[in-house]
Design a protein that fits this description.
heterodimer; A: 86 residues; two-stranded antiparallel ribbon; elongated; B: 149 residues; mainly alpha; 0% strand
Amino acid sequence: MKKYITGIFAVVLAVGASAFTHIQSKPAGDPMLYWVAADGTDDGLKTATQETIDRNCTGGTFVCSRGYNNPQHTGSPVQTLRKPNQ
Amino acid sequence: MMLKSALQSILSALFILLFVYTGISKLLDHRFFEATLSKSPLIGSASTIFSYVLPVVELGIAALLFVHQRIRVGWYAAFALMLMFTGYIAYMLLSQSTLPCSCGGALKGLTWVEHLLFNAAFTILAFAGLWLSRYQNTPTIKANFKTIV
């Protein structure tokens, strides 16, 4: 039993941490924010939290757009976030 | 000997923590994970399969590392998986002009370069765990020794 203590501790910690980060990542306030391309076309349903909007996903020479699954080429303008029916 | 044993315990606990955390995070946020995988040029249309297989594999490896009799198999699998993840990130960084924003759980906060370094470090740690377990006394080894003697 003693040799499994660290393993059990790691599992409990991991389960707690993943549940915690999952709850924390849930959108607060208005959860339904739509990404809109620069030309005004609807880029599809995407949800974003303020945290993901504020975070720049910068990796070397690449710049990720703000929000989920919305890659951009370096240097292109950041897409505007607006609420639906605006 | 005690130091080696302690190191191995710490390493296996660390990897159990990592794989259980990322595995569960991917399952909890499955839709997002699958959508991100679909953006990958390497995975693309197989994203649905990968989105289920990857977290299950991670949890499976964590289970192998937990069970001492199977720990060596677990280390081989952990090392192979980390090598694969590191290779994937390196490929994406070197060959792609656009990169999706994604990772599991708290690792979402890492940039692609940071994630590459993180994975490379854990690949080395997995190798260390594998190396430390090379004299692990498994039932199979004991049985073979008895047969020889």
